[in-house]
Amino acid sequence: MPKLREFFPLEFRILYRQFLSRVIDLELLSVHADVPRFLGQFASILVLISLSRAFGLLYAADGLAPGAYVSFAWRGQQDLISSTMLLVGLVTIASWDSTFPDRRDVMVLSPLPIAPRTILAAKIVASASILGLAVLTLNFAAGIAWPLVIGSHHGSSLGFLQALAAYWLTILVASVFLYCTVVAIQGLTSLLLPRGLVLVCSACFQMAAVCLFLAVYFLQPTITSVEMAGTASAWLNWSPPLWFFAVFNQLNGSLPPEFHWMAQRAWFGVAIAMSGAIAGLVLCYVRTMRKMLEQPDLVSGGHSLRWTPRLGSPLQSAVVLFSYRSILRSRQHRLAVAAYAAVILLIALPWLQIELSSPRTLPVTSDFLVSTFVIVSLTVLCLRGVFSLPISLTANWVLRTTQLCPTEKYVAATRLTLLLLGVAPAWLVVALLSIRLRPWHEVAVHLLILAFVGWLLAEVALINFYKVPFTCSYLPGKVHIQVMFWCAMFLLAAFAITSAEVELPALDSGVRSLVIVAVLAACGLALWMLNNHRAKSAQLYFEELPPEVITSLGIGSLPQQTPSTTFL
After folding, report:
1. Are residues 104 and 212 in the same domain?
2. Burial class (CB in 10 A: 0-12, 13-18, 19+), 386
3. Are residues 151 and 190 in the same domain?
4. What is the extent of the structural domain holding 188?
5. Is there a single domain that holds both residue 194 and residue 95?
């Protein structure tokens, strides 16, 4: 290991450590943030997913019928490759600017005697380290279990080794393809557009890419036979996960002749993506650094007439508009909202297809109720999580010095923000999805119940939330995200299913519906009163600080000794 360190220049090692810590945007964290612990918690989530998938594959393969192997193998291969490419895409989008230099790099590193190729190499290796860690933790168990399944089917150790090499080489090539594609698009836009327009387009590209990756993952059909491929020709032509499914079978020696063109298209796409990424990176490091100094990041707007609506008190209007503009103008916050919006869109998409294709009315079903509860819950959860990301840590002093109102006024403003920016849009989406549902009175009762559920969830999200949205940093290592993630998923699914089971029989009875509405209203009112009462004695905070740990030496508990005994 020391010899390996000496092989790389000192400048490269220093820059690599700095860029590795900046893959996560530190402006969205606290100054005391424990980034390695934060990444370790997310890695543990991927490890658990990999272990569960590995055990699932081994269990399903153990009881597999002899004639169903091909269908099972193709389904498993496509699922593993698609999930890996989805993870690579999301990690690449989350670290969108980590490969290219920013203004801070230009201002600090340009006067120093450091070659641009050293900066470029350190940036690429830092981004590749995070990406490689994510891919490895997601596939370390499944990447061994799946070759074991294939090797047991062939009945030889040679089949296991060939499948193992084919799997990891396919995962590597697919990850490189997707990463290089995103980098090539970034480089092309940086070369062709002005600096200010690049920042605007980059945020739009991020949101579109998140929606595209999730849509392909959830909507892409699973090919289980050669005959089935004829009904999904459009996906075969334009879906990279299916291309690399063909690459895996080509490397494993099990590719049908009908799919050879897909493997060729995958290798051709990898060559184009790598060429575009290399050219874009080299040209950007030659031209973009000067452009960053010469062109401003922000361009002043025009002097057109601007009107802002009045939303409650002046403080409430200010907080709502501040939150709305923070989501629109901040690239990081737009990305977080886009990820949640894409998931919500995928939940609503099947019902939207039914609405557009069905020539007749449809009844209210339990599946529809579960989907609507998940949509509203995810929307409130999204805003509650995004509210904790500060827009600018260095600007918090402005809000601290202008805190003229009591804390309950800020809590009321945050409540109005959750209702207007979270619950109301989700409720409108559900209302549009309910146009073809009948009877009308059941739809109206469900929308009323959903409105009270949204209000109740907003009150739950306000518990112990004594801060202005987008103004308080957080400690990412303080909360055990690997535990909270699985608990939230379990509770969300249980809440949606239980609510649907309780509401569906009650829709036929006016008395039962009235009881449900009354219970929800009472619970919401009780939480509203509790939040207001606790907010009166609370204080706003703008910085999450780690708890102070005082270590006691225990000197006071030692037995007292006389001077004579000590010297003796």
Report:
1. yes
2. buried
3. yes
4. 2-294
5. yes
Question: Does 245 map to a domain?
Answer: yes
Q: Total domain count for the chain?
A: 2
Residues 288 and 323 both lie in one domain = no
C-alpha span between 386 and 361 (Å, rounded): 38
Residues 254 and 357 in one domain: no
**In Å, how far from its chain's centre is CA 372?**
21
Q: Is the dihedral of CA 79, 270, 213, 225 positive or negative?
A: negative
Beta carbons within 8 Å of 122's beta carbon, 6+ residues apart: 12, 15, 16, 19
182 phi, psi to nearest 5 deg? -65, -45
Rounded to whole angstroms, how far apart are CA atoms 400 and 393? 12
Is 551 within the bounds of a domain? no
Q: What is the pLDDT along the chain (568 residues), one digit of tens a residue?
A: 455 555 677 788 888 877 776 665 545 555 455 556 666 666 777 777 788 888 888 877 776 776 677 888 888 899 999 999 988 988 888 777 777 777 777 777 777 788 777 888 888 888 888 888 889 998 988 888 888 888 777 666 677 888 899 999 999 999 999 999 988 888 888 777 776 677 667 767 777 888 788 778 877 888 888 877 777 777 888 889 999 999 999 999 888 888 899 999 999 999 999 999 888 888 877 766 666 655 555 455 554 456 677 888 888 998 999 888 888 777 677 777 777 777 777 777 777 767 666 667 888 888 899 989 999 998 998 888 888 777 776 667 677 777 778 889 999 999 999 999 999 999 999 998 888 888 888 999 999 999 999 999 999 999 988 888 888 766 655 555 556 666 777 888 888 889 999 999 998 888 999 999 999 999 999 999 999 999 988 888 776 665 555 555 455 544 555 444 443 3
The C-alpha atoms of residue 438 and residue 446 are separated, in whole angstroms, by 12
- Could you tell me which residues come within 8 angstroms of residue 110 by beta carbon, excluding any fewer than 6 positions away? 289
CB-count exposure of residue 561 (10 Å: 0-12, 13-18, 19+):
exposed
Q: In which element (H, E) is residue 28 found?
A: none
Per-residue DSSP letter, 220: P
Question: Are 527 and 460 a contacting pair, CB within 8 Å?
Answer: yes
Find out whether 340 and 379 touch, Cβ atoms under 8 Å: yes
**Alpha-carbon span 419 to 223, nearest angstrom:** 43
Residue 6: other Cβ atoms inside 10 A: 10
Q: Clarify whether residues 272 and 323 are in a common domain.
A: no
The DSSP call for residue 24 is: S
Measured in degrees and rounded to the nearest 5, phi and psi for residue 363 equal -80, 165
Position 556 in a domain: no
Which of 244, 261, 294 delimits the end of a domain?
294
- 404 and 266 fall within a common domain: no
308 assigned to some structural domain: no
Cβ–Cβ < 8 Å for 197, 294: no
Rounded CA gap, 349 and 345, in Å?
6
Q: Is the same domain home to 279 and 324? A: no
Last-in-domain residue among 294, 325, 345: 294
